[in-house]
Amino acid sequence: MLEALKHAKPKIKGAAELSILLTNDEEQHELNQQWRGKDSSTNVLSFPQIEPFGPVVGILGDITLARETLEREATEQDTSLSDHFTHLVVHGFLHILGYDHLTDAEALQMESLETQILAALGIDDPYAD
């Protein structure tokens, strides 16, 4: 997360805490249904506890990842589970900080930032064709 903080450049105001939960598809499905109204599992969910682009301090939020989905996607994308896991933690953390991908412009900004962070960690661009 330090690499993400370096690239995203949020206002760090003190000690911060972030929870990461590795769960299964069934639990992720329930969380996605409960909090987003989507009747399916998903690879990563973020639950921010701070204002978007606000100061980074205190409890930042939670990131949940569905293990079976991550394993399947890593195989489908011909990437290591470790690299895919790292990518989705970075993706989830950027959501915690306030980034999103609802519009093309937002997606371009967020994906560019993810790619920079991952490159600094020695991980290939997950969006490259």
UniProtKB/TrEMBL annotation:
It holds the Pfam family YbeY. Gene3D superfamilies: Metalloproteases ('zincins'), catalytic domain. InterPro entries: MetalPrtase_cat_dom_sf_prd, YbeY, YbeY_CS. It comes from the Bacteria. NCBIfam families: rRNA maturation RNase YbeY (TIGR00043). Zn(2+) binds at H91, H95, H101. Binds 1 zinc ion. Keywords: Cytoplasm, Endonuclease, Hydrolase, Metal-binding, Nuclease, Ribosome biogenesis, rRNA processing, Zinc. Its main location: cytoplasm. The gene is ybeY. Its EC number is 3.1.-.-. Belongs to the endoribonuclease YbeY family. This is Endoribonuclease YbeY. Single strand-specific metallo-endoribonuclease involved in late-stage 70S ribosome quality control and in maturation of the 3' terminus of the 16S rRNA. Its cofactor is Zn(2+). It is found in: Cytoplasm.
